[in-house]
Specification:
CATH architecture of the domain at 86-189: 2-Layer Sandwich
Oligomer: single chain
Strand order of the largest sheet: 3-2-5
Distance between the termini: 200 Å
Radius of gyration: 54 Å
Order of helices and strands: HEEEEEEEHHHHEHHH
CATH topology of the domain at 86-189: Tetrahydropterin Synthase, Chain A
Length: 288
């Protein structure tokens, strides 16, 4: 009888476990999902980013590239660093070699060297523009501007820009920041200097115009002299070609034209000069 009672108890216990089994499985699955969602043992590094691995806050040499990566919960944290090309605009004030105040705005395209993202994070942090780039731009602009006069800063702007770019590139690469592009957006000077430059340009333009007018007048005068010489030479050649026979021929031609115009009627009034005896004397002389 006792044995039968123990068997029944075992059977009931087994049935109870079978009934509770699915519930336990569900609890275990839910617990696992909760742990995964709470601790998040993975990290996603997006496009143009790098992941800096921190073991209990200590920066590691490993740098995670783009994609999905696993991490150890609690122990590891991943700091994301943007390594895409970024733009910075900075206003800078300086003085030229001739002590003119110069204000400029600098535009810089830069990016963090991807393989050194952990070093940048460790030594500089995420605020590297304010800590490194802006002060470097100020220093480079002052150093390069001081080598040129105010007028040269305008006339030699490409050379000035290139000198600043090279100096800034050498300065930033030490901190693992690469320069992609550099440009001087604005160069401005004091009002007095600007007015002096405008006055100088106006004077140069007026002088150039006067020079051109003088050259034009000179050319026109030379043209008139050349034309006068040509006309004088033509008259000289004509006088050289005049002969006695040519004069006689021209006189005969004139008489022939007068005869052609005469209507054949003699005038009624006689007297000196009344009858147009055209070439009569000459004809009688030739007849004799």
């Amino acid at each position: 009888m006792y044995y039968q009672s123990d068997a029944d108890k075992a059977k009931e216990a087994m049935q109870t476990m079978i009934k509770k089994g699915p519930m336990k499985l569900i609890v275990i699955v839910v617990a696992i999902i909760f742990i995964i969602l709470f601790f998040r043992p993975w990290v996603q590094v997006g496009p143009g980013q790098r992941g800096v691995v921190l073991n209990f806050g200590a920066v590691q040499e490993q740098v995670m590239e783009e994609g999905l990566h696993l991490r150890i919960p609690v122990m590891q944290e991943i700091a994301l660093m943007d390594v895409k090309i970024q733009k910075a605009e900075t206003d800078a004030a300086a003085a030229s070699a001739d002590l003119q105040d110069v204000s400029s705005r600098i535009a810089l395209n830069y990016h963090i060297v991807p393989d050194k993202a952990n070093v940048v994070y460790q030594k500089i942090g995420v605020h590297f523009k304010e800590r490194i780039i802006d002060p470097a731009i100020q220093e480079v602009v002052k150093a390069v501007t001081a080598k040129y006069s105010a007028e040269e800063l305008i006339t030699k702007r490409p050379a000035v820009s290139e000198a600043m770019r090279v100096a800034l590139m050498d300065r930033l690469i030490v901190n693992n920041i690469a320069v992609d592009a550099f440009s001087i957006v604005i160069f401005s000077f004091s009002k007095v200097f600007t007015e002096a430059i405008e006055a100088k340009q106006t004077a140069e333009q007026l002088a150039l115009k006067a020079k051109r007018d003088l050259e034009r007048i000179k050319i026109e005068a030379e043209q008139k002299i050349t034309a006068a010489k040509a006309e004088a030479e033509s008259l000289r050649l004509q006088r050289a070609n005049i002969s006695t026979d040519l004069i006689e021929l021209r006189r005969i031609e004139a008489n022939m034209k007068a005869i052609d115009k005469w209507n054949g009627i003699l005038p009624q009034v006689t007297g000196e000069g009344a009858i147009p005896m055209i070439g009569l004397g000459d004809t009688s002389r030739r007849a004799k």
